[in-house]
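Batch queue: ligand-bound targets. Current item pairs a single chain with guanosine-5'-triphosphate. No template structures supplied; prediction is de novo from sequence plus SMILES. Inputs echoed for audit trail.
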Amino acid sequence: MTREPLTREPLTREPLSLADCGWNAFFQGQLDIEEVATTTPVRVVAVHRAGLDVLGPDFAGLLPPVSGGSGDPEARATVGDWLLLDRASLSPRRRLERVSLFKRRAAGTARQVQLIAANVDTLFVVSSCNQDFNEARLERYLALAKEAETTPLVVLTKADLCEEPATYARAAARLLPGLLVECLDARDPAAVAALRPWCGPGQTVALLGSSGVGKSTLVNGLTGRSEQRTRGVRADDDKGRHTTTGRSLHRLPAGGWLLDTPGLRELQLLDVAAGLDEVFADIAALARDCRFADCGHDGEPGCAVQAAVAAGRLDPARLKRQRKLVAEEARNSESLAAQRRRVRAFGRMYKSVQKQKRKRYDD
Ligand SMILES: Nc1nc2c(ncn2[C@@H]2O[C@H](COP(=O)(O)OP(=O)(O)OP(=O)(O)O)[C@@H](O)[C@H]2O)c(=O)[nH]1
Ligand SMILES: [Mg+2]
Ligand SMILES: [Zn+2]
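Prediction returned. Tokens below.
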């Protein structure tokens, strides 16, 4: 067990209470009497290969990597998680249930689940007003937020580089009824102050978006420090490079927590069917009036969705995006479910072979 203090000193300068770290009744309610007496909660503020940076009223430091034991990637600890440490040995006892979890299908061929963050109250979906602006991409992030029951807020950066930022703000606001959209220059602290209401004491805000849109610039603007390295101006069109490479929580002067993340090149949806239904609630409502309950909205008679498109009440591009996302989500979730079944089946087979071997040995 390493007990070195965190080197990121702004996190340790002041003694923090549990509430300061985002603790609430939901987490407290998970502890039994014995745990209240013998454990101390800590929050995961960063995940490294070497282990987990954690922070709490009684301990701040690096823990060795915590494995879920079951091989289930969702059992692993991620940024934002709460762990109970044994007071005496400071070894982790267990991870607490999460209020919310963001995950995706990992990029590449492994098709594994990748955890992005846990216990987030508000999601800042960051996009720039120029080349990066893409409605389909925003809808992906909104589905993630809705599934996790966190509040999404779209932050459109680089308003200063854009002729008509209001056009982008309107296009984003149309994606979800009541969606909050802020359009700003992320380098301007006065403009960034508009985001403060979501960053109050105990609140956790995650920033997600493509590389180079200004997530770390926003983090620095809100913390008033320059903890996070941002991309050099001259490397601005070097699309392939990620400036931020790990996920980390940053404490705000007002008491909230910001979770900076590396830009996601691809957000493949997984287990967010309910989130998608919410994002595309307008289409779901229309579909209830289709003649056939299983209408594919693809030329069937009595299709209320196609009727709405014909009448100009539904943007056909939105319908196309919805179809694509629903199909992708189903495919990814199905392939993951199949993978889990295979793993379980293999586990059973392995155990039965072991049992037979032992039997033979005993005979
Ligand atoms: N003009 C202008 N430049 C901005 C704005 N926001 C960010 N930038 C610049 O864009 C570049 C990228 O910003 P970062 O904050 O590093 O982007 P990031 O989203 O953290 O990128 P990754 O860490 O790679 O995911 C930097 O040079 C910023 O100064 C903005 O609103 N206006
Ligand atoms: Mg960054
Ligand atoms: Zn239909």
